[in-house]
Design a protein that fits this description.
single chain, 318 residues
Length: 318
């Protein structure tokens, strides 16, 4: 774009400069008109340039505001990521504690299992002993005759009452053993129920922890995706601003080159200017004034050449 503007003004200047400069003539009738016309055109150009300058300033302020908003959002996003990272670390610490607790509970469960196995072995031994006692009682309760025979041949018993007392003692012992075996069986059942409840509760806790970890991983993925998107937008804004800055620099350079060409043709020095050499608006005004002067001079030359040609043609016709 800068090359196109520069080529256009250079071509226009070359066309105007190529025109033969008119000789000094009496232009007292057109000087005031030309001066007023130039002042009017200069005022219009200045107003247009001021409007464009204000528009450009508004656009730059808008871009600066958007850049500040993006920087603020980027800072907030970084703080959110730091908080989220802290949350993940705390969650990892909780998970490690939960794993340690689960390991301890597994050890406790193994100890309970061992205790249950011992109780089952003890219960089996008691049941076996009970069966033996029952068989023994059946054998001992054959008949009164057998008891009398036993009493006759046994030296330790003098009466049947002693044998019955011995039987009662054995029966009581048997009942106590049965009761003890039932208690042990109840304890085993209670321990099994507690173990099942404990296992179910821990499985639910593990499932909840896994669900929370999955939700947190999804949030992390979304946050990383948003960060990539905002970084891409920020790079696009920076590239756009750089291109516009480069374009503005080229335009100013082209304007300055045209101004130097005009100054050389007018035999002016940049040091003698009344404005700053970096003032692009003033340079454009100078170039425009020079082009307008050359255009008006060219029109005047052509008009005079036309009048001369018409005069020559009229004289020859006579």
């Amino acid at each position: 774009m800068a090359g196109t503007v520069e080529d256009y003004f250079r071509l226009a200047l070359n066309e105007k400069i190529a025109v033969k400069m008119p000789e000094k003539e009496d232009d007292s009738l057109t000087t005031a008109t030309r001066l007023l016309e130039k002042r009017r055109e200069m005022a219009e150009i200045e107003q247009a340039l001021i409007a464009q300058k204000e528009e450009f300033q508004m656009k730059m302020e808008s871009l600066q505001q958007r850049r500040e908003e993006l920087e603020k959002k980027e800072f907030q996003l970084k703080e959110s990521l730091l908080k989220f990272d802290k949350f993940l670390k705390d969650n990892d610490s909780k998970r490690v504690r939960a794993i340690k607790k689960a390991s301890t509970e597994r050890d406790v469960r193994r100890a309970k299992d061992s205790e249950i196995a011992n109780l089952n072995a003890e219960c089996s031994a008691l049941v076996e002993q009970r069966n033996k006692l029952v068989k023994r009682l059946n054998r001992n309760a054959v008949s009164q005759k057998y008891l009398e025979q036993v009493l006759e041949v046994a030296d330790e018993f003098h009466e049947i009452r002693e044998i019955i007392a011995r039987y009662d003692t054995l029966t009581t012992t048997h009942q106590e053993l049965v009761h003890h075996g039932q208690q042990n069986q109840d304890k085993v059942d209670d321990i099994k129920r507690e173990l099942m409840l404990f296992t179910e509760e821990k499985n639910n806790e593990i499932l909840n922890i896994n669900n929370r970890l999955s939700a947190l991983q999804s949030r992390l993925d979304r946050a990383e995706s948003d960060a990539v998107k905002w970084e891409s937008k920020w790079m696009h804004i920076q590239n756009t601003a750089a291109r516009k800055t480069l374009m503005l620099g080229r335009i100013k350079m082209a304007t300055h080159n045209l101004y130097q060409v005009v100054s050389r043709h007018q035999r002016l020095s940049a040091v003698d200017d009344e404005f700053d050499v970096d003032d692009t608006c003033q340079q454009l005004i100078k170039v425009k004034e020079y082009i307008e002067d050359l255009t008006q001079i060219t029109h005047e030359i052509r008009r005079q050449e036309t009048l001369v040609s018409q005069s020559i043609i009229g004289s020859s016709s006579y």
